[in-house]
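Consider the following assembly input.
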Amino acid sequence: MRPLITNHGKHSDAKMAYAMAADLVENSARLSGQDALDMRKLENNLGDSLAKHFRKIADREHAGIEANGHDHFFAEFDANPGHAAEIETEVMAAYMASPFAASMDKDLAARNVHEVVNKWMRDAQNMHRDWFHRWGKVGHHTELKDSPKFDKNHAHVQMWKDIHDGPSAKAYAEALHYHATAK
Amino acid sequence: MAGSVTTALTNSSLAEMLSCGHNYLPPQSGLAVTQSSTISGVLGTAIAGLAVGMAQTGTNAGAGAVIATFTPGTVTNYTTSVASTGALTSATFTGDLHKILLLGSALAGNIAYGSTVTNVGTPGTGTPSLANVGTDEVAASGSYSAGGLALTPTAIAQTNPVNSAAVGFSTTIQWTSATLSVAGAVTYNTSTRLSAATAPANNRATAVYSFGGTQSVTSGTLTLTQPTTDGHTGLIRLSPN
């Protein structure tokens, strides 16, 4: 379990992109010679190309908050499937363009990419939603501003906390049920 | 001497897993069911991933109802421990409520957090011991509150070709607007699933995770990135020798 830390705000798009890229490649420190260099290059290429996707996630979340306010609570926790597929295709293309393509188990790689992409997308989505539902903040990185859509007394603020903090098994289950059925 | 944190599944949780002491099945939310003031119910569609003991929630679900039995010879019929209070048409079934709490960087309790931790006790309160993290839990800040974050399990992965099974959590393990200085984390099961000779029977520690040193965040975001759930890695992974 690796900590990712940002002071005074949200993780930047680039920070999440490079952290995700590190998750998508073998640790180059365990390799030697040309392999280590090529793996580092692949990691950097992925980091560079993934940042735009984290901006796209942020934009989608902010649009959802702008349009729906605290009803954005009902958005799926899972990663946006169309966007996830787009990123997975891009990552696999980067793999195939790398010197490691020939030795790669493509099915295994695709499964791993699917899990990693979905995990990081969920994390990014959650970050934007948590900053809004709990603190009323929207924006990028350390440039956060108050959202006019925020109402600290809205029922969905408590529902969000019940799902994520689990103050009791009953409150957690009821909030999950509400999320699944009340939309 | 200060305390320490070492990554490990706790010995007690391994024994409990062999005693049906932990349910890591993900919630099944908003399932169509038919149940009318009875303990007998019928699922709208047969579905894998339910187990005896999972809690039932929904409009008209009985207070404290859990799945009691599955009817042999059927794939959709079940009974609950408590009758529904009327027509129940949609239900959510949840397994145990697992949580993750953070250990502060100043471990005043002189406890070696690792495989021998048995219980988190009353997080934030009391003298730290192997059965109570007590004041070794980091103080509340931002979205971090005493006891930490709820964890929703993902589908349990049976891995191949590596001989193991693993589970992770779909929950993003993340705290916002938080000022924290932490050394590690403890996952635990808040549900009471096993009897115990002495209280408490809940809040059983399942695993300890070291961050490799102190990690600090100021008025910001702390995310704990989970490993990929496969044959070699996973937050909770069981593999025979």
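Residues 4-20+97-238 of chain B form one domain. Ask yourself how this observation constrains the way the partners meet.
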